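Retro notes (design track)

What went well: tokenization of the new backbones is finally stable.
What didn't: we kept losing track of which sequence belonged to which structure.
Fix going forward: every design gets posted as structure first, then sequence, in one message. First example under the new rule, 290 residues:
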């Protein structure tokens, strides 16, 4: 029953100084601007952030049997180009609109991927970072938790759409059941849901319920740890391990076995995540998965 997940959720309300090779600039939220926090550049943007954590353990952080997505550097770079505004006829980057429920949303004939997570986990900031090279495409970001109230849809070159969903938990919209849950349950072109979790804390109670919602609906999803620039390496490692432990203990059948790590501030892991988005939407071939 759709309403059960939302009811349980409500109970648990608990510059870059140099340009990138794949992005010209990064989005900086108003809150971080106010804090004036210095961002340390990432030396290599086309890698998996898990790789830098591996020296901390003698055993593989992610079992070899679980590593299902291992694109080459060339493939990661190719994926990042999909988010680059090239002057090719017919290619578009645009905000398509906002809708309160899926029943009145247009039915486009392209794959869709949705981003969901608790309020203030950084969904809008992540999309803003992805679209940082497109000056005419604005993703509204607020320091106030629960700012996103509608389902915001963005077009990527007429190849696929990214959907920014309202957050659950604190200040979640009253229409969460008829918008987010209805969308997840009924949207036929939905290819994958990206379940965002704060890397500085790891999964919290409200995240567990959000994941239960995905499992109850049998919606294919992948866990993404955000704000990794704010987490110490030991904290980030604990968050990764806690995600893997939760996945194993709950037997999360709809969850992609490999978690992703990303920062919308310094760009680490962004190109790797873009490669996965390109892959699941049918716009990138991965040789190792052929």
């Amino acid at each position: 029953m759709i309403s059960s997940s939302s009811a349980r959720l409500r109970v648990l309300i608990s510059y870059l100084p140099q340009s990138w090779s794949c992005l010209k600039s990064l989005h900086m939220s108003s809150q971080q601007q106010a804090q004036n926090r210095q961002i340390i550049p990432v030396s290599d943007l086309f890698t998996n952030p898990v790789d830098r954590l591996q020296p901390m353990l003698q055993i593989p952080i992610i079992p070899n049997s679980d590593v299902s997505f291992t694109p080459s550097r060339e493939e990661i770079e190719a994926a990042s180009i999909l988010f680059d505004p090239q002057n090719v006829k017919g290619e578009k980057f645009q905000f398509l609109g906002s809708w309160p429920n899926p029943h009145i949303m247009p039915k486009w004939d392209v794959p869709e991927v949705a981003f969901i997570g608790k309020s203030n986990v950084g969904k809008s900031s992540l999309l803003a970072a992805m679209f940082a090279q497109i000056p005419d495409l604005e993703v509204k970001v607020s320091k106030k938790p629960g700012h996103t109230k509608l389902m915001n849809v963005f077009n990527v070159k007429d190849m696929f759409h990214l959907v920014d969903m309202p957050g659950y938990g604190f200040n979640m919209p009253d229409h969460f059941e008829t918008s987010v849950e209805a969308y997840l349950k009924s949207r036929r072109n939905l290819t994958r849901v990206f379940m965002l979790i704060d890397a500085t804390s790891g999964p919290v109670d409200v995240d567990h319920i959000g994941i239960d919602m995905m499992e109850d609906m049998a919606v294919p999803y992948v866990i993404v740890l955000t704000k990794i620039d704010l987490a110490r390496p030991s904290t980030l490692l604990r968050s990764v391990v806690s995600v893997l432990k939760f996945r194993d203990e709950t037997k999360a059948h709809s969850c992609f076995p490999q978690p992703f790590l990303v920062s919308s501030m310094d760009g680490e892991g962004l190109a790797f995540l873009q490669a996965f988005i390109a892959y699941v939407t049918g716009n990138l071939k991965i040789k190792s998965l052929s």
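Added context from the reviewer: The two ends are 38 Å apart (CA to CA).
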